[in-house]
Write a structure and sequence with these properties.
Blueprint: H1 2-24, E1 27-37, H2 40-49, E2 54-62, H3 64-70, E3 76-84, E4 87-96, E5 114-120, H4 123-132, E6 136-137, E7 143-144, E8 156-161, E9 167-172, E10 190-200, H5 203-213, E11 217-225, H6 227-233, E12 239-246, E13 252-260, E14 280-285, H7 288-293, E15 299-300, E16 306-307, E17 317-322, E18 328-333
């Protein structure tokens, strides 16, 4: 009996130790989504006055550690953190050196495409507000996804662009879909960020990175097509395999794999973090060195895990890495 008790205790201890090390080697939150901008004051004005984000912090950084972290020599960055609901974005302005603008012919199926999905309490009212503020359309107008699509039916969505041409989405869930927090009574129009979406070339390759290496879980899948999807993405013949990847905390990451058309362009080989297509999704972990060992074979932007002398950006250690399609993921440890 005593041996049985000891064996049981050892099993429990083993499970606790295994759980600890698994958590240490995985991402535990999507902390924020970084958007590289060309004019900080203009962007802060847009996100605060039009979309009602609140400014949380405003810092400027420079020096060798940040050059190594971002893979950009001679940089000086101004970073403004903004909050909507309980989610955050980081607006990043490279005061030096300036990067390349978003290509004017960018389309929603190009593999550098990324957006954030902002939940609204009233789609019609949100769309009219955006029209009043003369935002640039990316969709032809708000689209109500059809009822035949079990996982997406009843969702309404609209793509538009910020002052730098970054794609953004407003999204409204019907009562039977979405996180329950999006259905709480409120007088606010813009509620928070549900997910950030990225175009991927191959879902299985992306799963190996996000699920197997970083510890995300598949939360749901759907295949979206039809005239509504075409007008939402503004891509004729659009047929998408969509996979929602959930971290333990924070917004999810959504894969958009275009099954058709397959002519989306890959990210430029010479893309750098200061280019305006360089979104940076910040992923928090308890042990960035352990996570980095799981990323063998992926393109590291930082030459190594960088330890910052001062935690001006809210973390002490960081590593910038590209996923299989070139999307920037910033792994950070407090």
């Amino acid at each position: 009996m005593q041996l049985s008790k000891i064996s049981g205790a050892l099993v429990i201890l083993f499970i606790l130790i295994s759980t600890h090390f698994a958590a240490a080697g995985q991402v535990n939150a999507v902390e924020s989504v970084g958007i590289t901008v060309s004019d900080m004051d203009r962007s802060v004005d847009f996100y605060s006055k039009v979309l009602t984000f609140e400014k949380v912090s405003d810092v400027e950084v420079a020096g060798t550690d940040y050059e190594h972290l971002q893979g950009v020599f001679g940089l000086r960055m101004r970073i403004v953190r903004m909050k909507l609901g309980s989610e955050f974005i980081d607006l990043i302005d490279y005061l030096a050196p300036e990067g390349k603008p978003v290509p004017v012919d960018s389309r929603s199926n190009d593999r550098w495409f990324q957006h954030i999905a902002i939940i609204v309490s009233d789609m019609d009212r949100a769309y009219q507000l955006l029209r009043k503020n003369k935002v640039q359309h990316a969709s032809t107008g708000p689209q109500l996804l059809p009822a035949w699509n079990k996982n997406a039916g009843g969702i309404s969505a609209f793509y538009f662009k910020d002052p730098d041409g970054h794609a953004l989405e407003i999204l409204h869930f019907p009562a039977d879909k979405g996180n329950p927090k999006w259905h709480q009574p409120t007088d606010k129009l813009f509620l928070g960020i549900d997910h950030t979406a990225i175009v991927v070339g191959n879902t299985e390759a992306s799963l190996k990175f996000y699920r197997d290496a970083l510890g995300f879980q598949v939360a749901g899948e759907s295949e979206n097509y039809g005239i509504e999807q075409e007008h939402l993405n503004n891509v004729f013949g659009a047929r998408l395999h969509i996979t929602s990847m959930k971290p333990p905390s924070g917004p999810s990451i959504e894969f958009l794999e275009y099954l058709a058309p397959r002519d989306g362009r890959p990210a430029p080989d010479d893309a750098k973090a200061n280019d305006l297509i360089g979104w940076e999704t910040r992923l928090a972990t308890n042990n960035v060195e352990e996570v980095s060992r799981q990323l063998s074979g992926y393109a590291l932007v930082s030459p190594r895990v960088v330890t910052l002398d001062r935690p001006d950006l809210g973390f002490q250690k960081g590593l910038l890495v590209r996923d299989p399609d070139g999307h920037l993921m910033e792994l950070v440890q407090k």
